[in-house]
C-alpha cells in the first residue's frame, strides 16, 4: 500500500534524522520533497498546499523538545497534520435506533460496490442480521453475482422476480421480506454506471426519497486517484453521502483518495477494501493510515492482530520481565511461537515500525518454517542457559546444535536474534508514539 509515497517520506525523514539542529533551509528542502511526494501520490493540489503550509507553520514555530531530535519533531508534526486532513475523529458506521436500518450502497460500475456490500454485511452480521438486496437490474450479471457472494458469506439475499425491471419496486419489497425473515439491516446494492450521469443520480435520488437510508455509502476505487475524490464530491452534492468506502487499497493505490477525500470532497472515509476476499475490509483509521504512510508501521494493527490470534499471549509476563530489564530465551521462544501464529511474516513485518525496512526486506527470506529451527534450538538449551544466554560459548553451542539437529551457525544466529530482540524489547518498554528507536534493531531480525 502506498509504496512510492512511503519510500519518499522515508527518504525525507532519513535526511533530517542525523541533524542536531534544523535550519529554516533544512525544513524548506524537506517540505519541498514532501510536497512533491504528495503530488506524485495524486493528492489534490489544494490539499497538498494546505498540508505543507500547516507543517511549515508548526515546524518553524515549535520549540524543540529535549527528548527528541528536530528531525523526529518534524516527523511528528507531519504525522499529526496527515491525521488532521484525513479526519482525526473516527467515523463509524451507524445503526438506526429504529430498525430496520437501511444502507444504500452507491458507486460507479466496477468500483467494487457489490463486493463491498457483502463484505460489510458479513462484518455487521456479528451483531445484526443483514439482508443484501439486488437493485442493480441494468447489468444482467449483477443480481447473480450478489446472490452467489451472499451465499458464500452466509448472508441473507433478496432479489427481483424474473422479468422485474424496476429497482425501486425491488427495494420496497425488500422491507416486508426483511421483517418476515427477522433481518434488522438492509443493504441496497444499487446500479452503477461507467461514468457519472444524470439518469443514475435521478434513480438514486428517488430511492433515497422512498426508502430513507440511514447511511448512504459511496464505494470508490482508490486506484483511480484524484478521479475518486471528484466522484465523491459529485455524489455527495447530489445525494448527501454519509461515508465513503475506498476499495482496492491492496493494489497500486497511490494514496490520493485516502488522504484527500475528507478534505476535498467533505465526506469521511469509513471503510477500506484491502483485497478480493470477503473478509478484506478494514475500518478506516487516520492514525493507522498516517503511520503506514510515514513508514512508522502499523503498530496498532499489529497489536490488534496479536490480541486476536493468540489466546494465551502472556503479556503480563513479558511486561514483568521488561520492567526488570530481563529478557530471557524463554521470552524469545514465546515470541517466536506468537509470530508463527500471526501468519505470513511479510504481512506482519509491513506493520512493524521500521523506516527503510520495506526496502531492506525486499527479497529477504521470510520463511515461517525457519522459526521451527529457532524453536528447536531454544528447546535444546538447559534452563540455566535459557536464563543466562551469555554463558553459551563454544562447547555449549556445539551441544545445542547437535541436540536440535541444526548447525553451530544456526545456533549463533538465534543468539544474535536474542540480542537484537532484547534491544527491541527495551525500546518497546520506553516507546512513545514519536519514537523511532525500535527501527534499527528490528531491521535485521528476520533476515
Ligand atoms: P461493482 O461493479 O462496483 O459492483 O464492482 P464489483 O464488486 O463487481 O467489483 C469489481 C472487481 O473488483 C471484482 O473483480 C472484485 O473482486 C474486485 N474488488 C473489489 N474490491 C476489491 C478490493 O478491495 N481489492 C481488490 N484487489 N479487488 C477488489
Low-pLDDT windows of residues: 306-315, 353-366, 431-447
The CATH architecture of the largest domain = 3-Layer(aba) Sandwich
Major β-sheet annotation: 8 strands, mixed
CATH homologous superfamily title of the largest domain: P-loop containing nucleotide triphosphate hydrolases
- Compute the number of structural domains: 3
Q: Are any ligands bound, and if so which?
A: guanosine-5'-diphosphate
Return the string of H and E elements: HHHHEHEHEHEHEHEHEEHHHHHHHHHHH
CATH fold-type name of the largest domain: Rossmann fold
Return the CATH class of the largest domain: Alpha Beta
Detailed description of the structure:
The protein is of the alpha/beta class. It has 3 domains: 3-86, Four Helix Bundle (Hemerythrin (Met), subunit A) (Up-down Bundle); 101-293, Rossmann fold; 301-444, 434 Repressor (Amino-terminal Domain) (Orthogonal Bundle), CATH 1.10.260. The protein is 56% helix and 9% strand. It contains 21 helices and 8 strands. It has helices at residues 3-17, 24-40, 45-61, 70-86, 113-124, 140-153, 167-180, 198-210, 226-239, 256-265, 286-293, 299-309, 315-323, 329-342, 345-351, 357-360, 369-379, 383-387, 394-404, 408-430, 438-443; strands at residues 101-107, 130-135, 156-158, 185-190, 215-221, 243-247, 269-273, 281-283. Strands 3-2-4-1-5-6-7-8 form an 8-stranded mixed beta sheet, sandwiched between helices. Strand 6 (243-247), helix 10 and strand 7 (269-273) form a beta-alpha-beta unit. Helix 2 runs antiparallel to helix 3 and helix 4 (70-86) crosses helix 11. The chain is flat and about 80 Å long. Mean pLDDT is 80; it is low at 306-315, 353-366 and 431-447. Guanosine-5'-diphosphate binds at residues 107, 109-115, 192, 247-248, 250-251, 273-276, 280.
